[in-house]
Design a protein that fits this description.
The chain is mainly beta. It is built from no helices and 20 strands. The chain has 4 domains: 55 residues, no CATH class; 30 residues, no CATH class; 31 residues, no CATH class; 29 residues, no CATH class.
């Protein structure tokens, strides 16, 4: 058996009895080098491209180009996407700051705002909750309930 340059023997019962080494691909009975662009690495897979872009780079026209990461964003865990920082939700291809009105805070996800206790959202502001007579703030702090034995009727507490 003729073993091509850059090939290794295999103990397989099928195929040619050899395979190309890492970074090479079988082509017409020989092993040709896989062209790996800058900022890429060999996957060790002789099928397909045989390479992937390194973290923070993306494929474009068989090259690996640096990802454009907008202001107030960071590279995702896998290195193939970007995410916006807390308080800067994604809008198209940028991360825009949330404008917090007075008496507001960011929600748990950091992509919207909520009003603080004793205030309720009204359009783009947090309005102070005016308590009617015989009422108290409820447990959420964003509305009110009537004291016992009163009950709610519109915007007042009646017996």
């Amino acid at each position: 058996m003729d073993l091509p340059e850059n090939a290794v023997l295999t103990d397989s019962d099928y195929g040619l009895g050899w395979e190309c080494g890492r970074g090479y691909r079988a082509t017409n009975g020989s092993c040709t080098i896989i062209a790996i662009p800058a900022n890429a690495y060999s996957t060790g897979n002789n099928r397909g491209k045989g390479w992937e872009c390194v973290r923070g780079y993306e494929e474009a026209d068989s090259l690996c180009v640096k990802m454009a990461i907008p202001a107030n964003a960071y590279l995702g865990r896998q290195g193939t996407n970007w995410l916006c920082e807390r308080g800067y939700p994604k809008t198209a291809d940028q991360c825009l700051a949330i404008q917090l009105p007075a008496n507001a805070y960011l929600n748990d996800n950091g992509d919207d705002w909520l009003c603080g206790r004793g205030h309720q959202k009204q359009e783009q502001s947090c309005a102070f909750i005016i308590l009617p007579e015989n009422a108290h703030l409820n447990s959420s702090g964003s509305s009110w309930d009537c004291d016992k034995p009163y009950r709610r009727s519109g915007n007042q507490c009646i017996r």
